[in-house]
From TrEMBL:
GO terms for cellular component: cytoplasm. The active site is at residue 72. This is thioredoxin-dependent peroxiredoxin. Monomer. Residues 26-179 form the Thioredoxin domain. One of its GO terms (molecular function) is thioredoxin peroxidase activity. Gene3D superfamilies: Glutaredoxin (3.40.30.10). Thiol-specific peroxidase that catalyzes the reduction of hydrogen peroxide and organic hydroperoxides to water and alcohols, respectively. Plays a role in cell protection against oxidative stress by detoxifying peroxides and as sensor of hydrogen peroxide-mediated signaling events. The gene is bcp_2.
């Protein structure tokens, strides 16, 4: 009788360890998965390609849990206000969530102020690829921001459910990129 119980404990320990590593952010220097996704900018949908964006310079890729939630709207508004600062440094911004493209199309106008695109990842393949699954609510992306260098590697990441510091921290990280990298 004790043996099945111990086997269950061992299995739960292994699963917990495997699950824990699946929700850790990609580390600095890690190559990022390239992706294409349906995205919206100013209410218009298009096909976004991370590889195409990186060919132009660094990319600030931020994941957010749900369009139109209070904190996600605050964060999107803050990124919209800072888009010109990112652009002056040669960087672009893209937001990603598991919301459907119709929801994000409206969100791109309302909260993003038609200043940067947001991509739909209903299948959560991009979210999983970037280790951005919210551990406590796996149907949602965690609030996680990356600065990706043009070489396709993580230059910086910041994970915090509070939306207040994501723009400031990613902007500082883009400023800290080597000039040849930032201005590609």
């Amino acid at each position: 009788m004790a043996r099945p119980f111990l086997s269950r404990i061992a299995l739960m320990t292994v699963l917990a360890a495997a699950t824990h590593t699946a929700w850790a952010a990609l580390d600095i220097g890690d190559p990022v998965p390239k992706f294409t996704a349906n995205a919206a900018l100013g209410g218009k949908t298009f096909r976004y390609s991370l590889a195409d964006a990186l060919a132009k310079g660094p990319v600030v890729l931020y994941f957010f849990p749900a369009a139109d939630s209070n904190d996600c709207s605050i964060e999107a508004h803050a990124f919209a206000e800072a888009v010109d600062q990112f652009a002056a440094l040669g960087a672009t911004v893209i937001g990603v969530s598991a919301d459907d493209i119709d929801t994000l199309s409206k969100f791109s106008v309302k909260s993003c102020q038609s200043r940067f695109p947001v991509a739909s990842d209903e299948a959560k393949t991009v979210i999983q690829g970037f280790d951005a699954v919210m551990q406590t609510r796996p149907d949602f992306a965690n609030r996680l921001s990356y600065v990706i260098a043009p070489n396709g590697k993580v230059a910086y990441y910041y994970q915090n459910l509070n939306p207040d510091k994501h723009v400031e921290r990613t902007l500082n990280a883009v400023r800290a990129l080597p000039k040849a990298t930032a201005a590609k």
